[in-house]
């Protein structure tokens, strides 16, 4: 197969660029070892015509446009440009709501208004467009005054809309998936995080490891991924003390740092299964 491979720009990978690049390089290496002609295309360069597939981790609008153009010509991209864009926070929040997938109660906010609806504290204020790339893109809020100042901060940065999500007490669990929703042998892993891009996991404290239905989480994760369109994905959820699962984030092609070797092998399997 002739495969174009596009890494993630460092600006879209805050505090994670080395881990993201490690997965990318390992996947390209394994593709080459299997005899596939793999060309690395730097973010911003043109994608050659005639490729059988595109493996990418990009999130830049220009490259997603170029991937979409190649898709129209018949090249298969994993993840597709449309699916990657669906991982923007506002979009995936609306998709999960339509699918009936449980999320923390949320409210959309206009950062340009001086008034806000009555909200419950504590909670999380998140920019609605794109992905988190700045420490203040996601903020833990405990008072009305903190909310006001944080909204003003987002507005000053040119962010017009935000999402306020109620804080759910419980354990944060990270999950990772590779495969199509109808695959029999889908890759799925989960773990309790010890760190993150900006340290927000510390708010929920040391995991209590509340009992929950892991099979239900896998089913829910792949249902969400299928609705969004991603085939390589990761995410975060909260497990409440009574075992309820709340999805709080879905990401396209995470670093899989805890499972890098086997994840790269599964990504290669997925790419080379293209007919």
Largest sheet: 4 strands, parallel
Task: Kindly report the name of the CATH homologous superfamily of the largest domain.
Answer: ATP-grasp fold, B domain
Strand content: 15-25%
Q: What is the number of domains?
A: 3
Kindly report how far apart the N and C termini lie. 11 Å
CATH class of the largest domain, named Alpha Beta
SS elements, strand count: 12
Shape: globular
Provide a count of the helices: 7
Write out key terms for the chains shown.
alpha/beta, Rossmann fold, D-amino Acid Aminotransferase, Chain A, domain 1, Dna Ligase, domain 1, four-stranded antiparallel β-sheet, 7 helices
In words, what does this structure look like?
Helix 1 packs across helix 7 (260-272). The model has no long low-confidence stretch (mean pLDDT 92). The chain has helices at 17-33, 61-72, 81-85, 89-98, 144-156, 214-228, 260-272, and strands at 2-6, 37-40, 53-56, 76-78, 106-110, 123-127, 138-141, 161-166, 171-178, 187-191, 232-239, 245-252. The chain is an alpha/beta fold and 275 residues long.
Describe the structure in brief.
The protein has 275 residues and is of the alpha/beta class. It has helices at 17-33, 61-72, 81-85, 89-98, 144-156, 214-228, 260-272, and strands at 2-6, 37-40, 53-56, 76-78, 106-110, 123-127, 138-141, 161-166, 171-178, 187-191, 232-239, 245-252.
């Amino acid at each position: 197969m002739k495969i174009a491979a596009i890494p993630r720009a460092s600006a879209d990978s805050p505090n994670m660029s080395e881990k993201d690049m490690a997965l990318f390089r390992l996947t390209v290496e394994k593709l080459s070892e299997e005899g596939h002609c793999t060309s690395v295309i730097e973010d911003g360069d043109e994608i050659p015509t005639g490729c059988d597939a595109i493996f990418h981790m990009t999130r830049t609008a220009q490259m997603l446009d170029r991937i979409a153009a190649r898709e129209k010509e018949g090249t298969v991209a994993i993840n597709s440009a449309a699916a990657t864009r669906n991982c923007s926070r506002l979009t995936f929040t609306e998709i999960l709501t339509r699918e009936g997938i449980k999320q923390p109660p949320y409210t959309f906010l206009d950062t340009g208004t001086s008034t806000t609806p009555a909200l419950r504290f504590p909670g999380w204020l998140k920019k609605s467009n794109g992905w988190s790339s700045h420490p203040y893109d996601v903020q833990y809020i405990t008072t009305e005054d903190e909310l006001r100042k944080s909204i003003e901060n987002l507005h000053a940065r040119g962010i017009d809309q935000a999402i306020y999500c109620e804080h759910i007490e419980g354990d944060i669990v990270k999950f990772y998936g590779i495969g199509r929703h109808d695959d029999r042998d889908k890759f799925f892993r989960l773990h309790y995080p010890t760190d993150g891009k900006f340290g927000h996991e510390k708010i929920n404290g040391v995991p209590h490891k509340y009992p929950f239905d892991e099979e239900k989480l896998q089913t829910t994760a792949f249902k969400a991924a299928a609705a969004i369109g991603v085939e390589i994905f990761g995410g975060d959820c909260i497990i409440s003390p009574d075992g309820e699962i709340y999805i709080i984030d879905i990401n396209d092609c995470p670093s899989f740092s805890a499972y890098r070797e086997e994840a790269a092998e599964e990504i290669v399997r997925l790419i080379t299964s293209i007919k």
